[in-house]
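Sample 1 of the test manifest.
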Amino acid sequence: DIQMTQSPSSLSASVGDRVTITCRASQIIDISLNWYQQKPGKAPKLLIYAASSLQSGVPSRFSGSGSGTDFSLTIASLQPEDFATYYCQQSFNIPRTFGQGTKLEI
Amino acid sequence: EVQLVESGGGLVQPGGSLRLSCAASGFTFSRYWMHWVRQVPGKGLVWVSRINNDESRTNYADSVKGRFTISRDNANNTLYLQMNSLRAEDTAVYYCVRGNYGSGTYYYYYYMDVWGKGTTVTVSS
């Protein structure tokens, strides 16, 4: 199975900050990397697919980059509604695997 | 509106069975692969299973292989997860998820773009 490792596991930031979350795959996965946001008690929401493509309706302050084994999610200017947990997920092969999550706190 | 609504969760004893359902609406269900993903409260997301659009291909996580069966009814826009021989470690919120894909010049990419709200399964005596 492909292991996905996110860092940091938690992050404290303020409204207006620029933050970056990284995700590393245990083997090359090309651009088969997706990012999801989850708020407490809610289902995950797709933010970024194919490493850098913004899902429809997602604000442009979210961006993704990377290929191969190293990826990142950047939020350009944090808004109050962005405080949540973020997960990366590889779609290179089965089983699909997720990172452990990064909790973004105020 | 594109929507997935899970049902069928509940409390079951270890060794028991449960069948989850997921009603799809707002899109052509028969064109999409579908997944189940679970999450222990307070923990991360874990992929469980997937099924292709015509039910000819299925995959499972090792932790559920031989105990869970994914299926679908395209005529009624419904996805199922039959869970047998349930264990305490199967306790989780189960999400029904739509799989989608796109393509570049030389590759395909896959993602999960629509999620249900989840149904809770508790395995306990």
